[in-house]
Amino acid sequence: MKLKMTGVAFAALAIVQACGPAPTPEAQAARQHEIACVSGTVGGSLLGGAIGNAFGGGSGQDILRAAGAGAGAVAGSRYSC
Fold this sequence. Notes:
Layout: H1 2-18, H2 25-53, H3 59-80
């Protein structure tokens, strides 16, 4: 439980740090682009995994979930980057 809370605290700290202002406008634009790429990839992966989860059964469902998550990550990355 302690390890889980430490991970959550570290993730929250990283998110707050990533959203802070950059020293130059160019660095800020690069940071915003990077955040958009990561969020598109993660969002696509979650959506693809959820869609893949709706099909199949047993180990086939696990395979479809993983394939959906991978395809969603690629599509989300292409769309947001």
